[in-house]
Pyridoxine/pyridoxamine 5'-phosphate oxidase (Halioglobus japonicus), 211 residues
Amino acid sequence: MHYEDYRREYTAGGLSRDMLNACPIKQFEQWLEQSVRAELEDPTAMVLSTIDAEGMPWQRIVLLKGLSRGGFVFYTNYGSNKAQAIAANPRVSLLFPWNEIDRQVIATGTAEKITVAESAAYFMSRPRGSQIAAWASRQSRPVSARAMLEKQVQVLRDKFGSGEIPVPDFWGGYRIVPERIEFWQGGEHRLHDRFLYSRDGDGWSIEQLQP
């Protein structure tokens, strides 16, 4: 296959300054709602990029679980590679790749842990199987075989029975407080529309970028 020959035109629509909300979070909410209505497979999936203590970048897909206090919220094991990288360098980047509608959103900012109460509220809303999985997995640590993980899940099912499952003390959420958010709309002939919001005091400045 000749990869250099693979291309398509972006024809889903344009983006202009007068179409944007003055607040990037509200603009993001509008685009996310439109992505949901367009029945994208995973509209809340976002690529989280971190840099660890050794300066090594890494990316993985996580799910957006809320917007609060002007930030993007997701949950993870606090012993995971991503959490350790955030502890070393809290400056991160997010990418929402809404390829089916020729859009993407990139946000850069600082990750901070949310409160225990916020994490507990979300944990209790999760399906029971996901709650047990949070206890069973020491995320990012080696495992000799999947059977070992499945055995641990069964041990925890027996332990908790039908009772309430407590929130693990090694699990919780992060809020990414953005400093810059870029909205990208694909355009024909690679003349894409790009608008960058940057923090400006208590508000935001907006500038259009060349494609």
User: Anything to note?
Assistant: The chain is about 25% helix and 35% strand. The helical segments are 24-37, 81-88, 116-125, 128-136, 146-160. The chain has a mean pLDDT of 95. The first strand starts at residue 45 and ends at 51.
